[in-house]
Design brief:
This protein has about 180 residues and is α+β, with helices and mostly antiparallel strands. The protein has four helices and eight strands. This is Probable lipoprotein transmembrane.
Length: about 180
Amino acid sequence: MNRTLKRAGRRIAMVACVALLSACVTLMPVDEGRKLIGSPQAAVAARFGPPPEVYALRDGTTRWIYSKQPLGQQAYAADFDRNGNLTNFRNMLETPELYKAEVGKWTKRDVQEHFGMTREPVQYYPRMERDVWTYRFRHEGVWPSLFNFYFDQDGILRQTQITPDPLNDPDRRRW
């Protein structure tokens, strides 16, 4: 009996350590990026590599997106002022950021500039006449989920939807 309890205790401790380490890995880029606030673009590129996506925003600032999609749940944004100095670094695929999307107002361009280009295949639903872009994220920082953006034929955001991420569905896992 004691031996079984010791094994169970070790397993629980191991699972807790893995969960804690994964949380640290998720937060590490944000912490590292925030230490660079005020630094020039060259310093950010030296730390994180050349930016895979660069967006010149309407206000004259620039955003670099470092996405972990399609299987990751993060897309880090490095925001630069007009002089090319870092002003903010954060994970854009968090619930409060995703809720900023404005149905009826935002376009595909707005979504792309805010979250980066989707890395999932774009779905098209002919009866709805909607393109759907999908991003993986942790809803409320906890639940593995998909955030779906539905666009009409003019590229206007018409609907958003949160669904469970089937890749993290325990019923679908094969051990």
